[in-house]
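sorry for the late reply, my laptop died twice this morning and i had to redo everyting from scratch. anyway the thing you sent over, i finally got around to it. pasting the sequence first so we're on the same page, its 217 residues, then the predicted structure underneath. double check i copied it right bc i was rushing
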Amino acid sequence: MKSPDEMLSLRLENSFQKDKYLQNDDDSWVLSLSDLMSLLLIFFLVWTTLKISELKKQEAVPAGGPLSQMSFSPNPEALEGLKDTLLEFSPSNTADGSIVIVLEEDISFDPGSARLSEEGKLVLERIAKKLKTGTHYRIRVLGHTDSQPVSSAGTWTSNFDLSIHRAASAASRLIACGIPPGRIMCQGFGDLYPARDKDKIKDKRFNRRVELVIEPS
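ok and here's the structure:
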């Protein structure tokens, strides 16, 4: 039979071996987690490199489809000569070489309406006929109103609502007259960008308008 001293020594040795085993087990777990994190980091780096390469290829080769027509590289020379064909519509030029044609309300729409007048339809038909002679352009159709609030009992919820519907009506007419839909974008600004003083009654009629901004592409 073992003495008390021997039994105590044996217990201490077993306890030491158990602690050593647990310590080795913990270290093994930490090592596995470290390996996993390293693999994830390598995967992320490889994925990022491939993604950057893919994006560079997409930038180098424009994708097809209607949306690509709205992201041409600017080419101011593309509109040379086109303005001369539009002189009857009193076009103006912007700093970037775009052509702007203003359709005032009194010849395009009835007050408070987004339906084109017969005169407005004819004007847009003539403009479309001229534009079909060019190819490297896109058109932004911008709707504007004056600052007079719309009637609460009317069709429109706000001046923004009215302005975008007027822009859409003009754009639809251009498309019906042969302008490719992919070249056209509509925007409504309400009374945000008045052409003249929005507080003067005599100037309000100039603020109610649709602008055709013909941009080089």
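The longest helix spans residues 4-60.
thats about all i looked at so far, will dig more tmrw
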